[in-house]
TrEMBL record:
InterPro entries: ITPase-like_fam, Maf-like. The keyword Transit peptide does not apply. It comes from the Eukaryota. SUPFAM superfamilies: ITPase-like. GO terms for molecular function: nucleoside triphosphate diphosphatase activity. Keywords: Hydrolase. It comes from Dillenia turbinata. The keyword Membrane does not apply. This is Nucleoside triphosphate pyrophosphatase Maf-like protein.
């Protein structure tokens, strides 16, 4: 599609930035790639352990407040780790952020700065997600038994995902974040499907044991009120809006 002046300015800014995804989620990596971005991954789990952050110790009354608080804690932990790496002379070399679909035609016309300040500029994305079922917040299952109960609860009923996205401009300190909620309605899920999901194991590592894009689960998804990318942990439209707001 055609690129307007505002888009040119945005892409020029993005090409001077670098992007760090503070998540080990395979789904979030896939979504970022689908959006056309190149990025460096900094595993949140390793960072939070280093910073002695106890995610279970962060509790909020509302799920929206909880996912935002957890995204903030992850961002702070990663920033602290990055600062320590800089002091040790081991700074992370983040790849350039390029929106290939729109940038290809105009990159030759953009004169990019190559100053030390530009090289250090980076955007950090941190996220979190919980599932809400009958008013109760569900995080990752603590056992196979809990995962089994979670999935059996969804059978013939509905649940919601609440996902947070937090963008931090590491150059300016500007930080913007918000959350997105999606309702998911399910058909009856056969016990043999639940057994296969538990045996396969992926559901043990996602919020609420809920993973609608899984081939075993997808046939039993009746309706999604919202976007699938949000259920997978990274709402595209919200992420794009927040990127623009922190530039």
């Amino acid at each position: 599609h055609s690129v307007g002046c505002e888009d040119e300015i945005l892409i020029a800014s993005l090409l001077r930035m670098k992007l760090i995804l503070g998540s080990s989620s395979v789904a979030r990596r896939k979504i970022m790639e689908e959006m056309g971005y190149e990025f460096t991954i900094m595993l949140t789990e390793a960072v939070t352990q280093t910073a002695d952050i106890d995610e279970k110790g962060i509790r909020k009354e509302q799920p929206e407040e909880l996912v935002m608080a957890l995204a903030e804690a992850k961002a702070n932990a990663i920033i602290s780790k990055l600062q320590n790496l800089d002091k040790e002379g081991k700074g992370i070399e983040a790849t350039l952020l390029i929106a290939a679909d729109t940038a290809e035609a105009i990159i030759p016309r953009i004169q990019l700065g190559d100053t030390k300040e530009d090289a250090k500029a980076a955007l950090l994305i941190t996220c979190d997600q919980v599932v809400v079922y009958e008013g109760m917040v569900r995080e990752k299952p603590s056992s196979k038994e809990e995962a089994r109960r979670f999935i059996k609860d969804y059978s013939g009923r509905h649940a919601a995902t609440v996902s947070s996205v937090l963008l931090t401009n590491l150059k300016t300190g500007l930080r913007k974040g918000h959350w997105d909620k999606v309702e998911i309605y399910f058909h009856e899920i056969p016990d043999e499907i639940v057994d296969k999901l538990i045996e396969e194991g992926t559901v043990l590592y996602v919020a609420g044991g809920l993973i609608i894009e899984h081939p075993l689960v997808l046939p039993y998804v009746k309706e999604v009120v919202g976007t699938t990318d949000s259920v997978m942990g990274l709402p595209k439209a919200l992420t794009e809006r927040l990127i623009k707001e922190v530039l």
